[in-house]
Amino acid sequence: MVLNYFENIAFAYPFVLPALLIVPFLIFWYLKRNAAVQSSMPISSLRQLKGAQSWKTTLRHVPFALRCLAFICLILALARPQTRNDESRVTGEGVDIILAIDVSGSMLAQDFTPNRLEAAKAVAADFIDSRPTDRIGIVIFSGESFTVCPLTTDAGVLKSQLYNINSGILEDGTAIGSGLATSVDRLRSATSKSKVVILLTDGENNGGQIPPLTAKEIAKSVGVRVYTIGVGTEGYAPVPMQTMSGEVITQKEKVNIDEKLLHQIATETGGQYFRAKDNESLKNIYSEIDKLEKSKIEVTAIHRFTEKFYPLAIAAAALLLLELILRYTILRKFP
Fold first, then answer.
1. Over the stretch 119-147, which tens digit does the pLDDT of each residue have?
2. Residue 266 contacts by C-beta under 8 Å, 6 or more apart in sequence?
3. Cα gap 132→129, rounded to integer Å
4. C-alpha distance across the termini of the chain, in Å
5. Which end of the chain is less enclosed by CB atoms within 10 A, N or C?
6. Which part of the chain has CATH 3.40.50.410?
7. Bridge partners of 242?
8. Architecture of domain 95-294
9. What burial class does residue 144 get, using C-beta atoms within 10 Å of its C-beta: 0-12 exposed, 13-18 middle, 19+ buried?
10. What is the per-residue pLDDT for 49?
11. Residue 203, helix vs strand vs coil
């Protein structure tokens, strides 16, 4: 019980604790004094009084022991034992971010490991983990666009939805304008001062109801900054294709990324365009965007102390009181 009391205890005034070294000197002094008294005491021949005095003789050291214990408790109380509880308060303003990911059939190209889509999902998951104070949402697009997850700070929900993304769940094509417009619409009502879309695609716009330049103007009017990422190697990339018989074969397809369009969208909205040619460069791009879009967060550490000296002070007073009662009652020395 005593050990549990002192678990996680810190002392506010530890310089008081060396006073405990007085206790061994007090014990030494007491023993030496008692031995001197014993040697100078005459031996009584009244054996009939021996039994009457034996219990007092046994208890004669108790008042001194109580006084030593009271002194120890008092020194410990004066050192102010206390426990500390640490709290952190996060204040400030995060960034609202939409991850717009192309899920067209060409995203299964294997110039990334294992393919473009899985590589994009992996770096997006790491990006989510690196921004715990921001609200992030996910939009996917191919021939049409769809919101997979609205803005949230729940990283678990975001990554669960992200891992469930597959190619082929939407009409095939590359509707860059629709993907961007849906992303901007998700940010339209956001109250954050910083609104960002990270749009990742591996092709040229060839579908959708909204032209990419129109979506770009909508983004500018709402104050959304767009970072665009072109994914794909130079030249040709191996793409798995399913034949009429159901057999999956791999064939080479030319990599066509509309870099001029992606650069224009990024530049005119205040963002940047990046080109990812492999897994490592894609990871570095997300790291670069992470550095560019810093959240304005302040973490305040709060230390709360709980005083633990009260039981020790009460124990010291109780021990002294008990010592006085014993000394002046049953252990009282008569002249």
1. 999 999 999 999 988 999 999 999 999 99
2. 226, 227, 228, 272, 273
3. 6
4. 43
5. C
6. 95-294
7. 248
8. 3-Layer(aba) Sandwich (3.40)
9. middle
10. 47
11. coil
Give the chain's residues under pLDDT 70: 1-7, 37-58, 86-93, 295-302, 333-335
d(CA 138, CA 124): 10
Q: What is the pLDDT of residue 152?
A: 94
Structure confidence by residue, pLDDT tens digits, 28-48: 888 888 777 666 655 555 454
Q: Specify the pLDDT at position 27.
A: 86
> Residue 217: what residue type?
E
| pLDDT (0 to 100) of residue 54 | 63
**Alpha carbon distance 116, 320 (integer Å):** 79
| 38-68 burial code (b ≥16 CB/10 A, e <16) | eeeeeeeeeeeeeeeeeeeeeeeeebbebbb
Rounded CA-CA distance 312/292 in Å is 56
